[in-house]
Design brief:
Elements (H helix, E strand, L loop, with lengths): L1 H7 L1 H24 L2 H7 L2 H4 L9 E2 L4 E2 L15 H4 L32 H9 L9 H10 L1 H5 L14 H13 L9 H19 L2
Helix pairs in contact: 1-2, 7-9
Bound molecules: heme C (2 copies).
């Protein structure tokens, strides 16, 4: 039957053969695109204000350094987050917001400003840098964690995380089902690589 097809409609077969890589590329693109909504949420100030690498939480939509010299390491010396942050938001802007378990994450969980989607994706898939979670546990964290949920109800004067919490969880589940693919390493890397080759050829050319 296949031979007959090839015999009778060679152009169709050629077309099909050509289409296969295109379809595969599209699927790969789609799978990679599934991480982007997660990246957009994680990099918004509601998440990054806590997920810092320098022990100093940030505040407000402008990500300014936390007032009153708050630092994670001072927790052990009595400066507890819970002295000011309760389990609920207070009603006025600029009062400490609150949610159950308010705390500073360890630095390896930081979402740094210079992280591209590839870097964040790799961080989340590595147990050393994702709080030692399996991927389903990570998605469960997104669904149930009080601090994650708080970012969509952050209290007066703070912009909520983009989209809705429901959409975020749905996006995380889609990503998980697709096999948790990571986007390609940023094009900057390729640019750097191209730059490197140019520099190299220039320097070789100069010999
Ligand atoms: C109030 C501070 C705070 C906010 C806001 C916050 N986190 Fe966290 N996050 C933490 C702390 C603390 C931990 C460590 C918890 C633990 O290990 O149990 C953590 C852990 C994590 C982890 C590691 C997985 C895990 O189960 O520990 C991920 C991923 C994460 N947060 C993502 C987010 C995202 C995405 C947002 C925004 C939607 C967010 N966090 C908002 C404090 C925060
Ligand atoms: C002395 C009181 C106090 C202590 C202690 C304190 N905070 Fe705060 N925090 C505040 C106040 C007040 C605000 C609100 C500032 C504003 O909105 O202008 C705030 C805001 C924040 C925000 C900003 C939320 C957002 O997205 O805008 C984060 C994150 C935060 N605190 C984390 C922490 C962490 C983590 C700790 C413990 C290591 C901590 N804070 C300890 C008083 C405190």
């Amino acid at each position: 039957m296949i031979m007959r097809l090839v015999w009778r409609h060679p152009h169709k077969v050629l077309w099909l053969l050509g289409a296969v890589p295109v379809v595969m590329l599209c699927l790969a693109d789609q799978a990679q695109a599934s991480f982007m909504p997660l990246y957009q949420v994680a990099m918004n100030p509601r998440c990054t204000n806590c997920h810092v690498s320098d022990d100093r939480p940030r505040q407000t939509d402008d990500r300014v350094i936390h007032i009153m010299n708050v630092q994670g390491r001072l927790r052990d010396l009595g400066q507890k987050c819970s002295s000011c942050h309760g389990e609920k938001n207070l009603k006025e802007p600029h009062l400490p917001p609150g949610a159950v378990g308010w705390d500073l994450p360890p630095p390896e969980l930081a979402f740094k400003a210079d992280m591209d989607p590839f870097a964040l994706c790799m961080q989340w898939k590595n147990r050393m840098t994702n709080g030692d979670r399996s991927l389903p546990e990570l998605v469960n964290h997104f669904e149930t964690d009080h601090l994650v949920r708080w970012t969509w109800l952050p209290g007066p004067g703070r912009t909520p995380s983009p989209g809705s919490h429901k959409e975020f969880v749905a996006a995380a589940q889609t990503w998980l089902k697709a096999g948790a693919p990571c986007p390609e390493e940023s094009k900057d890397w390729m640019k750097r690589d191209a730059q490197f080759s140019t520099n190299l050829s220039e320097s070789i050319g100069g010999w």
